[in-house]
Every structure is written in C-alpha cells, then in structure tokens.
Specification:
GO biological process, one term: tRNA N1-guanine methylation
Largest sheet: 6 strands, parallel
Number of helices: 13
Order of helices and strands: HHHEHEHEHEEHEHEHHEHHH
Number of strands: 8
Helix content: 40-55%
Number of domains: 2
Strand order of the largest sheet: 3-2-1-5-4-6
Catalytic activity: guanosine(9) in tRNA + S-adenosyl-L-methionine = N(1)-methylguanosine(9) in tRNA + S-adenosyl-L-homocysteine + H(+)
Region (Disordered): 1-39, 278-311
Structural class: alpha/beta
Radius of gyration: 29 Å
Domain SAM-dependent MTase TRM10-type: 83-278
Distance between the termini: 101 Å
CATH class of the largest domain: Alpha Beta
Binding site for S-adenosyl-L-methionine: 185, 205, 217, 231
Strand content: 5-15%
CATH architecture of the largest domain: 3-Layer(aba) Sandwich
Amino acid sequence: MDVKKEDNDQDQTAQITLSSCPGTTPATPLSKNQLKKQRKHAEMLEMRKLRRLKERERQKAKRVEAKAKGLPLSVGPSRKELKRRQLMAINKQSSPDIISVAIDLDYDDLMHERDVAKCVKQCLRIYTINRRAAQPLRLHFTGIKTKGNIHECFKKNDGWENWHVDYHFDRTHSELFDKQKLVYLTCESDTILEKLLPGHTYVIGGLVDHNHLKGLCHQRATSAGLLTARLPLSEHVDMKTRSVLSTFHVFELLTRVAANQGWTQAILETIPQRKGAKAKNNSKDMKIVQTDQQENDKQMEIEQEKVEITDVAETDELGDKVITES
C-alpha cells in the first residue's frame, strides 16, 4: 500500500511543470512580427561574418595589387607611426601647456538605449581621430556612471580599457579641472572661440538628443559657473543647414586647429559635404592665416617664374618637386 502511494506522489511531482505550476500564467506565443525580427537578427549576425571575410579579402587583394604596381601598401600612417605618436602624446601629457579635451558623458539618464549606443560609437570615433591626429590632444571621458548605460555599452568593445584615454567614473569635469581654465563649447554661447589656449581644457557635451534637449549643455555650464564659447562657424563659412555639429566633428575640428591649421580650411575639411559649406570672402582666416600647403604652392610658383625668366633648363626637376609636394 505504501509503495503505491509513493508511486502516485512521484507521478504527481513529475507532471508539475512551469506552465502547470499554481500561480503562473502560460507563456504567450510569439507574434509573426517578433518571429520575423528574430529571424532577421539571426540573418544579420550571419551576414556580418561574411561581410568581414569579404572585406579582408578585398584588403588583401588591394595590397597585392599595390605591391605589384610599386605603390605604398597603406594610404594613412602605419601602426608603428601611430604608436610613436601616442607615446609622444603620453610624454607630453605632464606638460602644463598641453591642450586637453573632455567629453562630458554625464547625460546617461537622458538618452534612450539607441542614443546611448550612438554616443559611445562617437566616442570610439573620437579616439580614432585623436590616434591618427598629427598632434594628439589629451583626451578625457568624464561623468561616466559606474555600471550605467554608457559604462555597459563601453564594455561591449573589446580592449576599451587599454585605450589611451583618461576615464573618470562618477566625477564630472567641474570636479577634475580648474574652472578658470575650463571652457564648455556650446552653440548658444555669446563668446567666439578664436584660438585654443595652452593649458586649457575644452569640454564637449556627449549628448545625442536629436535636438530635443536644446540648450541643456549651455544651461548646465552656466549654472556651474563655467566659461562657455562657440565655434566660429558663421564667421568663416556659409552653410545651407543648421550650424550644429556632432561630437566627433567638433573634436576633429579642434585637432586640426591645434595642429596650426586655419579655421576656414579646418571647417571645410571637417564638416560633411551635405551641409554645403562655402568659405566667406571676408573671412579673416582666408586673408591672413595660410596653411603650409598654400605657402608651398606659392613658393613653387615663385620658383617657376624665376626658372622661366632665366631660361634655366631645370623644368624636369621642378616638375618632380611639384608632384612630390602636392
């Protein structure tokens, strides 16, 4: 009798599942749209691997073709050169005259998940721009909340802890730097940024809001008693669209100006072509400040005139110089 009772108890416990357990509701089946999204996501992950393989094959074919034609294997600087620049930048970071840039990431709770991913992606691009810059700036990421949305999004990138960036968790730029040498860049400011001052730190708001929170960065900066400034975009170029740039475009513009490039040319080479920017005729930068390339071109014209006047038979050598310097 006892044996039959134990068998019945075992049968009852075996029949109890998560769906039949008291106090639970049965799981609803996935809709057609949800199943379609899952299928598309799986296809996207599979296609991503194939695209990477095809891209590696294309790069390999380009290197083989360039080697056969005697062309340089890479257009940009090599990894060895990039590492050398980084080491030089690290050695200069202790200098009080270095120009620093801080990306203010203290907007974690004001962005949706998709906008947080875009913000971190821009930080990745900023790191790449600084790594490839002729004169890298000292880069800070401030206001990162520990285990916040931005922190968790950073963790999805392998090796992010090894970047040559100063990470500051739970500390804002106001707590880290001297307020007298701290300038927050906002398009609402009445002060025009004419030049970058050594020893100063320029703050860029890491906020992706699609213009829904307009003026928030400027409001926070003025409330904290910080100096503000705007980029001299309207003073140097005319644009068809709004003069609002993304975070990495602002950073790239600062790196160009820090490398002694004029504002006009730096703006034209940085902002996207869709903005339709054209240099102003009355731009001081175009009249006074000249880049090294412009000076070289002018010098080459003077040398060519001298050659034509004196009838010196060195046109081939002069042509070689023009090709190599252009």
